[in-house]
Design a protein that fits this description.
The chain is mainly α and 221 residues long. Helices cover 69% and strands 0% of the residues. α4 packs antiparallel against α5.
């Protein structure tokens, strides 16, 4: 049973990884980056600060996101991964590394189950959905999280199973910490925050900018 699932996981990964081109090699590599999304994170902070002011509730929410990031990232990488020791598809121990299209010689670390990128992005998407209760913003965040996951499979550094496990873990962390903090701080007023479109505008603009940069890098020798 496990072998069958692993074989299906590998086949799906190789299928996704096969749709490569010079433009998307650049684009997916950029989408997968962490620092390029800092403007969007700043947008989240600005919207929260405009609604709550610099009060204890804002500090509580930011602290919650920080703790959630610790559990979704550090625990994922340093606690869960060593238990399973599943090599990334790009590593020699995977048995399929010779079939994977490598982008810019990037192979990631040794192990990839579960995916921290998937965990972190779905943690943030779920947290944003719970806080703002805005359908359009929630849709944007989950599309962003899916794009992040797809980029990791495209780059060949994660099996779909790694991404699914990471997404589930990040979602659980978000729900658990939101429920805990909501017991002491009523977070319902965040859903009335104005200018939430700022977040999705900044995020969408980042996607567009990354596409432009990728096109330029592809066209210029």
């Amino acid at each position: 049973m496990i072998k069958t699932l692993n074989d299906l996981d590998a086949a799906l990964l190789l299928w996704i990884n096969s749709f490569h081109s010079p433009f998307f090699d650049q684009f997916m590599n950029l989408v997968s980056g962490k620092w390029v999304w800092v403007p969007m994170y700043v947008g989240i902070f600005i919207v929260l600060a405009m609604r709550l002011g610099f009060k204890p509730k804002l500090v509580a929410i930011l602290a919650t996101i920080g703790v959630a990031l610790f559990f979704s990232d550090f625990v994922c990488a340093e606690v869960i991964r060593p238990i399973f020791n599943r090599p990334r598809p790009t590593q020699l121990g995977s048995g399929i590394s010779h079939l994977v299209h490598i982008v810019d010689n990037y192979r990631g670390g040794d192990y990839g189950f579960p995916s921290c990128h998937a965990s972190n992005s779905f943690m943030l998407a779920t947290t944003a959905a719970l806080l703002f209760r805005n359908k359009i913003l929630s849709a944007f965040f989950f599309l962003w999280a899916l794009a992040m996951c797809y980029s990791r499979a495209y780059l060949g550094v994660h099996y779909p199973g790694d991404l699914l496990a990471g997404a589930v873990w990040g979602t659980i962390v978000a729900f658990a910490l939101y429920a805990l903090v909501n017991r002491y701080y009523a977070l319902t007023e965040v859903k009335t925050a104005k200018h939430t479109q700022l977040i999705s505008i900044v995020g969408t603009s980042t996607f567009v900018l990354l596409a432009i940069v990728s096109a330029v890098q592809t066209c210029v020798p």
